[in-house]
Each structure stands twice: as structure tokens, then as C-alpha cells.
């Protein structure tokens, strides 16, 4: 269920790389844990972040969670459709529910992220700890 | 994304296995492993407003107060007027500190002149029992009977018809805040027309062994009409729309009934009770802050514990959520009295961002009552 071509974080974000543009969202597992999302707070275009910086929040009826940026870069686009209709993130977290696009600063950081298989194992291990 | 924390060694209600079977998402709620949702908070919320929902609230505590002096004891221990309760009636009340602030909020059921049942918040149960036991005096005794009771809440416009089918008798002849014993699915039950959702509904007190079969039967009977099992997530959005206070959020031992806009549970004329002197002083001097409903003007949800800045001074958000019925964020805040008029704007601090809110009329949601049939 986690697309093969994406890169994953332990905080349940994903990155898709197209040339020097990285698209970032949250995973299916993350949206399921959150429940119905009612608010997204995303940064302005032009903001520059270092990997692991907090770049926004996602808020469901019951809780607020911070979003952490998996790789460094400058924001070039935010998903305004998702800000207006946050339910899109629940419905299609790997597709129309993407959050931000950024111009990637360096290629190195992406290699530290998990593959789809590694992420699936990670989620399973995390579930068992509960 | 930051993860919610998990905890271990939690207490479970007799319905725990059924929750698992129904696919509930379970969380730590004051030391209890409870369902926060089954199908989703918004869907469950809507089910209660439009049809009906079934909640496990067996974690609530039950204290029994018995003896010839039971009424006199409860008159001293609680601010509402117990002498006004007839058999088969209950009312909303509280335990208060000597400072007039909340030890807990609770329901008092009169089963007989010498037999009362008090229903208290789960997290306050040991504190409440110790508090009552230390003050109850002669001719009455208090017993923590929580383990002897499971509790289901069946709430929503269809609650009466679903329960009637399970009970084989019509519970809708009960007045609001009335109760009686009846058999539900053959099990003895105490059924009261009470709830915490702003809808018509019933709370069904059962022996622990009866809880799972009764919940199964109610779900089965209600399924064709869209009745759903509901978790604490929907319970919170429902109660907040109805402006019902939550202990630990809106009221606690720093807040008095005057401040919480719950003055109607305080009967100053009935005689002495714990907290009365302090409440008399505060009544004379006037409160400086009061609980008020608000809606957001700017984006975001101001939640419990967030700071507020009102024209006449600081305030505090005590509850905040997304209202499924209104489709917008709502909440309650303690504000300077001068800033509690509907329409007054104030700022909330949403994780470091200033977001404007506006005092709104409450309750945020009021059910349409069915017209009584003309005789």
C-alpha cells in the first residue's frame, strides 16, 4: 500500500523526487492514526527549511500533530486544495492529498530515508510496541 | 508527524472485547483503555444527532449513599437541593471545596428516601469517595459501588424506540432526568433519561456481565436504522456543542459554579453546604471571570489550555474542537466578565500564532424538541 517510488520518514511523511523538486505528504498510516483531518497549516512559498524542521501542522477533530520536513529545501508550492478541503489528505494521502513541493537543496539527505519496505516494517514494529 | 503517546497497564470495562471486535481505536482516557472512535468521530457525531449512537461509559464511578441520614448528608455535601428530588428523579450537582470550587461534577439519583446513587467522573472516583467518606457524618454511609455497575449511553432521536424494543416497554414516558428499573434484554437495569450529548437519550446502568449482551442487542436492533457504536471522541464534540462542562477541562478545583455559568446547580437558600460561605462571598463581590462560548474568526482551533487575550485582560481556553454540526471551530474560554458579551472579539494563542475568536451564543447546538401531542 506504500508506493515503491517514495521515500519515508519515521515521523510518517513521504517524499517523491522529480528532478530537483520534492513533493511531500503524510502516509496512509498517518492519516488513519489521525482520523478526520479538519485543518492544515502549511508554510508560505519561499520559506527555506533544513531537514527535520517543523514546517506545519495537521489537525484532526481530536488532536494536533506537527509536520516535519524530511529534506532541506525551499518551498515552491503548497497544496491549496488540501488547505481548503483537508479531507483530501484522508482520502488520497499519496496522491491529491500531497502537502508541499520544495526545491531540493542536496541529494544526500534522501538516501537516509526509508524505502517502502523498510517503512512497512517500521510501522509494524511501532504497532507491536503498543 | 509527531505521534500520540501510548500507555500501559490500563483499566478495562466489561465491554473491552466487544470494542476490539467492533474495530474501535482505543486510547488511554484517565487510566482507562477506552474507544475514542469506531468508524470515525464525524460519522458517529452525525449518527447521534440524526439517528442514535451507543457509548460505553462504564468507566464512570458510582457511589451509593445510604441510611436514614442520607438526604441530610447530601444536602451538606452537594450544592443542589436534594430535598426537591422525588423517588425516581435525579439532578445535576457537584462536590465543592471549602473555596466553592469543583471537587467534581456529578448526578444524584434518588432511589428512595434513604438510598441515593451518585455518578461521578472516572478519574475523580477515588478522590470523590475519600472526600465524601471523610464528611458524611453519622446516620449515612457512602460506598464505592463502581465495580458493580457497567454503564451504556444510548443517545439520539431514535434512542427511545430502539430501547423500547430491547426493553419490551416504552421508556419514553420517563420525564427528562427521571429514571426507573426495567429489564433490558432480560437483564435488570436502571434506566434514566439523561445524557451528555444534547440529544434525547438514556443512560442504562447494568451489572457488568449484562453490558456486552445488552450493547450487542441494541446495536443489532438499531443497525437497520443506522445506529452506530460511538467513542469518546464524538462524546466530546457532542457535549461541547451542547455546552456541557467537562471536568478537568472547563471546571476543576480552581473554578466555582458562578464562574462556570453553572449557578443553577447552587441553591443558596436551602441551608448550609460545603463551599457555601465562599460562594456567598463571591456572589456578593461579583465574579471577575466567566466561562463563555466562542467561535473562531481566524483559521485554526483554539484548544484546551491555550492562552487568550481579551480587551479587559487575559483569559484561558478550556475546551476547543471542530464542531461537526456547525462545520467550524468552537470552544469555551474563561474570560474577564466584561468580555463575555456575545460578539466580543479576543485573541487566542494557537501554538504561538495569534488567532482571533469571538464570543458566541450558547449552546452551540440545541435540538428541536418534538411537539407534544395535544390531549
Topology record:
The complex is a heterodimer of chains A (130) and B (375).
Chain A: E1 7-8, E2 13-18, E3 21-26, H1 28-34, E4 37-41, E5 48-49, E6 54-60, E7 64-68, E8 73-78, H2 80-84, H3 87-91, E9 100-104, H4 116-129
Antiparallel strand pairs in A: 1-2, 2-3, 3-9, 4-6, 5-8, 6-7, 8-9
Chain B: H1 16-21, E1 25-29, E2 32-37, H2 41-50, E3 53-56, E4 61-66, H3 70-77, E5 89-96, E6 102-112, E7 115-120, H4 125-135, E8 141-144, E9 150-155, H5 159-167, E10 179-184, E11 187-192, E12 201-206, H6 208-222, E13 228-230, H7 232-241, H8 276-285, E14 289-296, E15 307-310, E16 313-323, E17 328-336, E18 345-350, E19 353-359
Parallel strand pairs in B: 3-13
Antiparallel strand pairs in B: 1-2, 3-9, 4-7, 4-8, 5-6, 6-7, 9-12, 10-11, 11-12, 14-17, 14-19, 15-16, 15-18, 16-17, 18-19
Helix pairs in contact in B: 2-7, 5-6
Count the DSSP helices of chain B.
8
- Summarize the main sheet of chain B: 6 strands, mixed
Distance between the termini of chain A: 22 Å
Low-confidence stretches of chain B: none
Portion in helices of chain B: 10-25%
Quick one: how many beta strands of chain A? 9
Following the backbone from N to C, one meets helices and strands of chain A in this order, namely EEEHEEEEEHHEH
Q: What radius of gyration of chain B results from the CA coordinates?
A: 21 Å
| Residue runs with pLDDT of under 50 for 5 or more positions of chain A | none
Helical percent range of chain A?
10-25%
Globular, elongated, flat, extended or rod-shaped: what is the shape of chain B? Answer: globular
Structural class of chain B: alpha+beta
The main sheet of chain A comes to: 6 strands, antiparallel
Strand order of the largest sheet of chain B: 10-11-12-9-3-13
Count all strands of chain B and give the number: 19
Radius of gyration of chain A, CA atoms, in whole angstroms: 14 Å
Whole-number mean pLDDT of chain B: 95
Question: Between the first and last Cα atoms of chain B, what is the distance in angstroms?
Answer: 60 Å
Name the biggest interface: A-B, 27 and 22 residues
- Overall body shape of chain A: globular
